[in-house]
Amino acid sequence: TASQVNNGSSDNCAIATDGYALDKTVFDCSNVGANTVTLTVRDASGNSAGALATVTVVDPIAPTFTIPSSHGVNLGSGCSIVVPDLVTGLSGSDNCGNVTFTQLPVAGSSLSSSHSQTHTITITANDGHGNTTSGNVTLTAKDQTFPLLTPPAAVTVNTDNGKCSASAVALGIPSYSDNCPGTTVANDAPATYQKGVTSITWTATDAAGNTQTATQTVTVTDNEKPVLTCPTVPVQCYVSSGTYTVPLLTATDNCGIASITFAITGSTTRNGSGTNAGGSFNEGSSVITWTVVDGSGNSSTCTTTVVINPRLTSLIPDVYAVNPGGSANTLYKGYGPTSLTLNASVSGGTGPYSYKWTVGSSAGQGISTSPSLTESPTATTMYYFNVKDAYGCSAPLMTRTIEVVDVRCGPRLDKVTVCVLQKGVPTTSCVIQNSVQGSLSNGGYLGSCLVSAATTKIRKVEIANEVSTPELSMSVLPNPSPSSFQLQIRSRNESPVTIRVISGLGVVIETRRGIGSNGTISIGSSYRPGVYYVEAAQDGKRVTQKLIKLSE
User: Fold this and answer.
1) Which of 177, 517, 509 is nearest to 325 (CA)?
2) How far is the C-alpha of 441 from the C-alpha of 420, rounded, in Å?
């Protein structure tokens, strides 16, 4: 108003009551600041005068606006955030209507940070007239970036010695990175890895709890061969069954055995499976080759040599104190020598041999360690012959009985009893010493004539190459023969066999006891031409065969 502008105007008379006037009394926002106005003063006489004055318009009202909400901002590379533009599009109100905005830090600024760290951004509204209003926005840094993780390369190792697993496996070092520091890496690796493939999970975890996983494989390979201990078999003595025991193979493996097989070559040929290769073996040397395979295909072999010693046999040939006319292995009181020498022969086995002659039993006190034995018994005596070879193998026990027959006759016992054929009839005669040789040379025999019911039965026996029972058989070749006969004995058991040879006169001209079963003997080389009967007896079983001795 004029009164607000008037600053002591005066007049010589008086200023009219309505004598003050301004050329501009209304101002708005466009007039903010200094404005020049004219004040006119009029007195009562109508005289007027004017003067210039300055009117300053002031805007005292600050602008208003709505502060943006606080929010999170992603952490980027270098673990920093980029300040967003918080003022673009922001609106406010002011009495004068023109409001501008600024922010600090400015948009696009990079701020180092960490997960969950807060940052304050100040926004200021300015109306252009010096009036401002400020507000703060809180930005919270958020790490939502997963770590980058590359596992170590796949690993292949062998099993530990003697085990089906591997331990202390070096896995290698993984590579990893993250936008912020503080990342840790762990894995779920076991202390021990079983044969095969094991998957290892690696996990990288950053400070914000973001995780990343990757897989590594560990392959455990079994290259360890089975461990074998082949048995050692001493030289085996022959047994008639042909069956022998072999100690078991010992086989172990770190991961277990899949198969065990064996092949036998040499004297014996057969195959089988398992750790027991015992069973049938032939005489001679055989090699057992074991092959053991584990579950991974690793294999080992070893060998065992089995030596079956050749069958050891012995034979005591007949000896004659008086021939012709005397029985084998017989001493005669009153005629001929007073001693006999038994000469045993040994075949098979492995030399050198050890010998033992005994009387009474095979376990009796030894009377000779030589294959020959010279004895002068005064009564019928059985002698036992034992033989062992270098490996301690024994031949079947052989026996030989030296019969002692008293052929003395006459009142003074100075004559000799002989059996002679008179007019076709066997006749016992008592002759002087000087006539004995002539009687024997003419077909007679020392001792009394023996004719029994058995002789009658024997005369029914026909000539055959072989006679047998289910348990015992005897074959004779050749028959007839101008020389000797080969007797082959076959039996299911090993009991000794007794052989008797009876002349056509019914006289037992030869007896052999303790003959080994399943063997061959020779008889008859000293027999005169004629008909004979041979009888083999074993455990109550008997077979008899007729022999024809021809002239040479």
Assistant:
1) 509
2) 10
3-state class (DSSP) for residue 500: strand
* Distance from C-alpha of 152 to C-alpha of 137, rounded to nearest angstrom: 45
Residues in the chain: 552
pLDDT in tens, 74-109: 999 999 999 999 999 999 999 998 899 999 999 999
φ, ψ for residue 263, nearest 5 deg: -130, 135
What pLDDT does 470 receive?
A: 63
Q: What is the pLDDT of residue 316?
A: 92
Q: Please list, in sequence order, all residues whose beta carbon lies within 8 angstroms of the beta carbon of residue 7, skipping any fewer than 6 positions away.
A: 53
Q: Is 203 exposed, middle or buried (0-12, 13-18, 19+ CB in 10 A)?
A: middle
Distance, in Å, from the CA atom of 501 to the CA atom of 158, rounded to the nearest integer, reads 79
Separation of alpha carbons 17 and 129, rounded Å: 38
Kind plus residue range of the DSSP H or E element containing 202: strand 196-205
Strands in 299-308's sheet, in edge-to-edge order, are 270-273, 257-266, 284-294, 299-308
Residue 501 phi, psi (nearest 5) = -115, 125
Q: Is residue 277 within 8 Å of 304, Cβ to Cβ?
A: yes
Nearest to 446 by CA among 422, 421, 428: 428
Chain position carrying tokens 């055959």: 464
Give the amino acid at 98.
N
pTM above 0.90, yes or no: no
At 289, list the tokens: 């080759």
- In 3D, which of 432, 403, 405, 429 has the Cα closest to residue 418? 429
Helix, strand and coil percent figures for the chain, each rounded to 5: 5, 50, 45
Cα separation of 3 and 16, whole Å? 13
Neighbours of 272 (CB within 10 A): 15
What's the CA gap between 176 and 151, in Å, rounded?
Answer: 8
Bridge partners, 37 (sequence order): 53
Look over the chain and give the mean of its residue pLDDT values, rounded to a whole number.
Answer: 91
First to last CA, the chain: 191
Place of tokens 């914000």: 208
Cα–Cα distance list, 283 to 110, 242, 310, 408 (Å): 99, 9, 6, 52
3-state SS of 12-77 is CCCEEEEEEEECCCCCCHHHEEEEEEEEEEEECCCCEEEEEEEEEECCCCCCEECCCCCEEEECCH
The total of other beta-carbon atoms located within 10 Å of residue 551's CB is 7
Q: With beta carbons less than 8 A apart as the criterion, state whether 440 and 511 touch.
A: no
Q: Say whether pLDDT at 466 is over 70.
A: no
The CA distances from residue 530 to 21, 286, 462, 546, 549, in Å, are 199, 50, 14, 11, 5
Q: Coil, helix or strand for 222?
A: coil
